[in-house]
Design goal:
This protein has 120 residues and is mostly beta strands. The protein is built from no helices and 11 strands.
């Protein structure tokens, strides 16, 4: 019913930049918030950044000042601009959405993940 499709991952050198995109589609009544999480090998999934329907943003301390989350509400799309990438940013990045498919049906949805590798 709801799909989140990520794009934009890849291989980048330290100090480089990447921009991730995530488009939500399907039976969507409203979106409360969207965000990005990441999971590195052997580690738990962690929050990277979130943005609410009102535009409020939140970032993990490790990415503040380097990553920027933004959205296109009309297109149900969220972006993550990643600058000054570090080796430790290497992970699978997952898009997440807190949305309603009806007035009283609210749930969290996840994308399939996109690999970001920072390597020289």
């Amino acid at each position: 019913q709801v799909q989140l499709v990520e794009s934009g991952g890849g291989l980048v050198q330290p100090g480089g930049s990447l921009r991730l995109s995530c488009a939500a589609s399907g039976r969507i009544f409203s979106i409360n918030a969207m965000g990005w999480y990441r999971q590195a090998p052997g580690k738990e999934r962690e929050l990277v950044a979130t943005i609410t329907s009102g535009g409020a943003t939140d970032y993990a301390d490790s990415v503040k000042g380097r990553f920027t989350i933004s959205r296109d509400s009309a297109a149900n799309t969220v972006y993550l601009q990643m600058n000054s990438l570090k080796f430790e940013d290497t992970a699978v990045y997952y898009c997440a959405a807190d949305l309603r498919i009806a007035v009283l049906k609210r749930n969290n949805y996840w994308g399939q993940g996109t690999q970001v590798t920072v390597s020289s």
